[in-house]
Amino acid sequence: MTEDLLSKTFSPSEIEPKWYGFWLKNGYFSGGEHKTGREYSIVIPPPNVTGSLHMGHALNNTLQDILVRYHRMNGFNTLWMPGMDHAGIATQNVVERQLAQEGLSRNDLGRENFVERVWEWKEHSGGVIINQLKRLGCSCDWDRQRFTMDKGLSQAVREVFVRLYEEGLIYKGDYIVNWCPRCHTALSDLEVEHHETQGSLWHIKYQIEDSDEFLVVATTRPETMLGDTAVAVNPSDPRYSSFVGKQAILPIVGRKLKIIADPIVAMDFGTGALKVTPSHDLTDFELSVKHDLARITIMDADAKINEQGIHFHGMDRYACREQIVAELQEKGFLEKVTPYTVGLGKCYRCKEVVEPLISKQWFVRVEPLAKEALAAVQQGKTRIIPDHWVKTYYEWMNNIRDWCISRQIWWGHRIPAWTCQECGEIAVSSTTPLRCPKCDGINLKRETDVLDTWFSSALWPFSTMGWPEKTPLLETFYPTSCLVTGFDILFFWVARMMMMGIKFMGDVPFKDVYIHALVRDEHGKKMSKSLGNVIDPLMVMDKYGTDAFRFTLAALAAQGRDIRLSENRIEGYRNFVNKLWNSARFTLPHCRKINAGAGLSDFSDFSLPERWLISRLNKTIETVKNAIESYSFNDAAQALYEFCWHEFCDWGLEISKIPLADKDPNVSSRSAAVLIHTLDALLRLLHPFIPFVTEEIASKLTPGVEPIIKGPYPVPDKSLIDERAEDDMRFLMALITSIRNLRAEMNVAPSRSLPVVVACASTGQIDLIRNNLPMVLNLGRISGIDIYELTGGSTPPSNSVTAVVSGARVYIPLSGIIDPEAEIERLNKELQKIKAEYESVEKKLRNNDFISKAKPEAIQKQQNRKTELSTKLSGLQDALEKTLAIKNS
RNA sequence: GGGCGGGUAGCUCAGCGGGAGAGCAUCGGCCUUACAAGCCGAGGGUCACAGGUUCAAAUCCUGUUCCGCCUACCA
């Protein structure tokens, strides 16, 4: 056989690149462009061009690859569309940092040169993650790889923008937005992270005009008082009702502020009086709309106080706060300061504290789009799995706010809008307009803002397939079958793809959305409980192999739970891969026993263990199929682990050693055929999870046959499920286990072969043992077995240890070896356990309510248990009495 | 403030109405010619707490408590 399979341990690094290259070269990853009626497609959640593989990616893409390989093997025309997004802010930050090292800013370069520079960066350093995904074994259709800044995708972005604008679903307006003073751009609500921070609540006295009375307001941001234009109280607050309509005087500044009443003001918070700063607070902005209040902006784009800020002009917002508090104090306007925890909004990219600021921005009016996206899920056009996310999705869709899509950066899709310098008309067009559509002027100035990266990501499921062209690819693969993603981008991405897909394709972008857990790690977040250390997927793959890593992720991917990855676990699955490898080392040499291509159907009269193994295999196939199709990756992995190790290897292979050595070629080749059939099926079942090692083994097992990546995937055959064989094997296995158990308990070395006596409860048991004698002898490591029927009147051997299995009594004569004292103790312990169990069953069956109300199957089960336990009990009792007699003799 | 998820063996986690499970760790015995990354055995849990529903609850309901996450205009 093949020499390279002789190595005792599996070496992943030698075969992984070989097979990946082979698959790639032969084009197995590409989807066909003509519809077959059995299509399966997935679009990858595009990683950032700046990104590198972390555990989240590894999990996400492993699961996708499992689905894709599974369906491909099942004969589906399969497409896994890969690509990256341009990550506007993140990428710009990376390149700006580079420039800073050269002592340059982006403004030194100018827009065009800067963008050029970003492209250069992208070509040389961007997208390292793509090779890492290949390393992970991802079977993406790489020839179709897309990038959100591609020509085609950019065209799609323009087209969508123009159409939404023409329908009035995109508008430009002055509005308060989240402004990052460091990135110098607006952020959408979703891009702001809230962190609890210790702050203070300053109570400031605002004097009522023409009186000695004061209205005390409480604020966490005293510096914003420079922009106050009103004070608000709750209309039903008796403390302040007399003030409503009057004027308050803004301390230090001296401006007169209208005192208004609005129910939004919480009476029980702070003093119940709210200072209103429309230009620097979202709620206040909304109040200003409602009550027609003036808006005074007091900060610039750097969050420094502007010329509206009297003598604070030019100060940083925090310096200003200190100064203003000091001045209030000094002048007697500060009533008190109390400690207070505030939820500070920070930029998700750079963690700078976000400043609410009024500016001209572009927005998508999402409500009409959201309605459709909501309905699609309600109507079941798209399923969200696990379904508890449905509620979250509804919640968000129902409370959705307009989406700020303009960003004041240079890297991204520049908004296709031009303002006429003559008449002020705004022209929005997918092609560059030469003249103003209104006044025909030629002096048009293009919008400088670019679009939120998520705007282009929202189009991903169809823009990657060639939209707005009507391509065969779209025709074949849209809507996609499934989207696999983490819940952290449910709103950012999934919801928006739903809206855009329905709007522009007239159909949902995916039939299923599978939302997986998060792997704890990343920004120092605890991953292992003890240390806050991050496990690098690449390190894991180097150390344990890609297959072991993938299998670990799949095995841990239980629905609705976060994954906490431990290296121990990976090591365990590395051992599993090795176990599989070694089972192949055992099986392979037997290939030559059977004719090439011989299958199970070429044999008949299978032995009991053979029928058992095939039956178990088919049940496993069924389990795995159901598990994968319901996204229960962990169940599939577990079933495969269990079958492979504890049934195929522990029993199947061990038992086969006897028939394989049989002189009768019929017997040995039949046994070999069963093993090879099982191993082949197992490799195919496992291939989506551990593609490399399975392909390697399969190539040796059935050389010349098509690589297993092409399938077929095993299908369960109900006719091969043999319950009788499983029952019979269960008895024999229990018998063997009990023999092993007895000898271990008695500390008998495995090398010492012993005789055994079995008193069977039925002739059926006798036959079973007789017919499978070599197996029992071999696996039980016994020299001989004396079998008779329990009711036959034979006396059991004296001086023996005893166990009871399905009514059969197993004796191992150990004269001179056993210590009656120890055996009595052992039997007593066992008796205790069984007795307790028996009593609980007995109690249940004595309960009339149980008998009358429980399901018949449940009652039957308990009755079976009772008889089982009672025979075991009496067997043990007998043994105990005998041993006691020996002791006393 | 609202919502969601979780507290099961020493550790990491499955199970989610009818006999408490896995991997790792621990203990004992084995170089049994595929595998010591292995083989054969063993020990270990009032399933967070308190009530309730049910013939039956780790599993369903209610409350308490402790963690984690998401969300929100209480300044």
What descriptors fit this protein?
single chain; about 900 residues; alpha+beta; 7-stranded mixed sheet; 4-stranded antiparallel sheet; 28 helices; 27 strands; about 45% helix; elongated; RNA-binding
Could you outline the blueprint of secondary structure elements for this entry?
Blueprint (H helix, E strand, L loop, with lengths): L11 H14 L13 E5 L11 H19 L3 E5 L1 E2 L3 H14 L4 H4 L1 H15 L2 H8 L10 E2 L3 H16 L3 E11 L4 E3 L4 E17 L5 E6 L10 E4 L13 E3 L6 E6 L11 E4 L5 H10 L25 H15 L2 E14 L7 E10 L2 H12 L4 E3 L2 H11 L4 E2 L1 E2 L9 E4 L5 E3 L15 E3 L3 E2 L1 H5 L2 H4 L8 H6 L2 E7 L3 H16 L4 E7 L20 H8 L1 H11 L10 H21 L20 H22 L3 H28 L4 H22 L4 H11 L21 H23 L8 E7 L2 H9 L1 H8 L1 E8 L10 E6 L2 E6 L6 H27 L1 H6 L2 H33 L1
Parallel strand pairs: 1-2, 3-4, 9-11, 15-23, 22-23, 24-25
Antiparallel strand pairs: 5-6, 5-14, 7-8, 7-10, 7-13, 9-12, 10-11, 14-16, 17-21, 18-19, 18-20, 24-27, 26-27
The protein binds one RNA strand of 75 nucleotides through strand 8, strand 12, helix 8, helix 11 and helix 18.
Short recap of the structure:
The protein has 889 residues and is of the alpha+beta class. The chain contains 28 helices and 27 strands.
What do you see in this structure?
The protein is elongated and about 115 Å long. It has 889 residues and is of the alpha+beta class. It starts with 11 loop residues before the first helix and ends with a helix. It has 28 helices and 27 strands. A hairpin with a 6-residue loop joins strand 10 and strand 11 (256-261). Strands 7, 8, 9, 10, 11, 12 and 13 form a 7-stranded mixed beta sheet that branches. A 4-stranded antiparallel beta sheet has the order 6-5-14-16. The chain has a 4-stranded mixed beta sheet with strand order 25-24-27-26. Helix 16 (537-544) packs across helix 17 (546-556), helix 17 crosses helix 18 and helix 19 runs antiparallel to helix 20 (633-660). The structure holds one RNA strand of 75 nucleotides.
